[in-house]
Design goal:
By secondary structure, this protein is mainly alpha-helical. The chain has a domain of about 200 residues: MetI-like fold (Orthogonal Bundle). It is about 70% helix and about 0% strand. It contains twelve helices and no strands. Helix 5 packs across helix 11, helix 7 runs antiparallel to helix 10 and helix 10 packs antiparallel against helix 12. The chain is globular and about 75 Å long.
Length: about 300
Amino acid sequence: MRSRWQRFRESFFLYSFLRDPMAYVSFAILVVLVVGAFGAPIIAPHDPYDPTTIDIMDSELPPAWSDEGDSRFLLGTDDMGRDMLSTMLYGMRISIVIGIGAVALQAFLGIVIGLLSGYIKRLDNIMMRIADVQLSFSTYMIAIFIGAIFQTVFGVENYGKIAAPLLILIIGLAEWPQYARTVRASVLAERKKEYVEAARIIGLSKVRIMWRHILPNTLSPVLVISTVQVANAIMSEAALSFIGLGMPMNKPSLGSLITAGFEYIFSGAWWITILPGILLVLLVLVINLLGDWIRDFLNPKLYKG
């Protein structure tokens, strides 16, 4: 009997993936970035969270290849004297965690609401009207409202301690309607099929039918949305950090690093904001490219592999 690994090696998914250079190059870059982010405590040459290792006299040093660069700091230092390479790796880890956490929250809310709305008719209008109201508010409006409340309650200094889970909560609550609408549409199509009627006839409960029979058949579009939404969540976090509602500077994300260096971009210290910006664009780009490939692969009408 063939093992799972053997079946995977012989699968059409792997065959199609390896035939698409854009897919496997994007995946390889994403793996390198994720390993670098989560392996930062081991890979990074400096610890930007340890103030004893930071010297303010080393602030705003250009990258090592410049004439005034220092070989200790490959990508230079920021205005606080922190090594840019190390700070970017640690910051990317925070951005990825916030992106994945926000998508997990919005997917959970969207799947539950979409299943209930699509399968139980009397809940449909209520759930969809709530989704419509939610869509009328942008992520930034919700962030400004909730962020202002929490900063008032906890104070600006203590706000930094809850910034990451708060950003996950804000972005998750702001984006769940996309999942709900997609899952609802899939459920409306699936509930009319024979296997659902058969499950209903033999006496299975609504909860069992929804979670054990209908949900697995709605996961393909959810997977496609999730890959795109991770990139969107990372961009949302960066935008919120840019307007001062994101991560604090003592635990920076890529967004807050870009913000911190923005005022220095015209004074000659371009690397403080440009390098984190390039890394952010690269991270979002490869995730979006993989999401596009998965979308095309799961849609036979689009896939031309």
